[in-house]
């Protein structure tokens, strides 16, 4: 069985503009964000999707609906929204300035940024460190995050519309795309910066294995 996922990062939101962490919290798409969605919708207008999924956040659902409205093929799937595909939950750091949040997470280890944590300890540790720094410890650690996301992919692959050769639209989030790239990118993808809003990455599921063939609109060799 082979399935190709078209992973699209949602359009720019106000929290993106203001450099705030935005996991389960939400903010509206900006005018640039609406433009992001329209542009990627035009780019993918000729792709026949057998299924379409997003998280249940308004930024992801709105992006998905704009893309689907621009599709010109002979089949229009209904959008399925699952909480499993939400962005990482940042606990009490939701809505906080990103740079300050990652400084707090890395400070006990002598690190000052998300990139430094990734370089010294890996992407998984960014989640564990932020949960430890959260006074309420509500933020998701790595195991909690992947249990939720893996369940989402299991549900998706059980969709009767997702058969061999299917193409699936999946509206995703910045840190989730980095997490997927860390797990399935075969060390070929930079993990320092989130992909652009409205960018397209392609993830293939084949023979029960996942691998990226492009990321952030760039082909992977």
UniProtKB/TrEMBL annotation:
The active site is at residues 10, 87. SMART domains: PGAM. PANTHER family: FRUCTOSE-2,6-BISPHOSPHATASE TIGAR. The gene is gpmA. The keyword Membrane does not apply. This is Histidine phosphatase family protein. Keywords: Hydrolase, Isomerase. InterPro entries: His_Pase_superF_clade-1, His_PPase_superfam, Phosphoglycerate_Mutase.
């Amino acid at each position: 069985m082979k399935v190709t996922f078209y992973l699209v990062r949602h359009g720019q939101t106000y929290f993106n503009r203001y450099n705030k962490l935005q996991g389960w919290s939400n903010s509206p798409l900006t005018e640039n964000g609406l433009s992001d969605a329209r542009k990627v919708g035009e780019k993918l207008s000729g792709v026949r999707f057998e299924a379409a999924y997003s998280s249940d956040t308004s930024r992801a659902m709105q992006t998905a609906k704009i893309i689907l409205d621009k599709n010109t093929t002979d089949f229009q799937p209904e959008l399925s929204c699952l909480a499993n595909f939400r962005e990482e939950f940042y606990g009490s750091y939701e809505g906080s300035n990103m740079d300050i949040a990652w400084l707090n997470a890395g400070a006990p280890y002598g690190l000052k940024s998300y990139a430094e944590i990734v370089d010294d300890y890996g992407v998984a540790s960014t989640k564990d460190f932020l949960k430890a720094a959260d006074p309420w410890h509500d933020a998701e650690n790595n195991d909690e995050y992947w249990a939720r996301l893996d369940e989402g992919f299991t549900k998706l692959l059980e969709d009767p519309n997702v058969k061999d050769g299917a193409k699936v639209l999946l509206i995703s989030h910045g840190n989730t795309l980095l997490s997927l790239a860390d797990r399935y990118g075969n060390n070929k993808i930079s993990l320092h910066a989130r992909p652009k809003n409205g960018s397209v990455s392609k993830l293939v599921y084949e023979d029960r294995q996942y691998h990226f063939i492009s990321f952030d609109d760039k082909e992977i060799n």
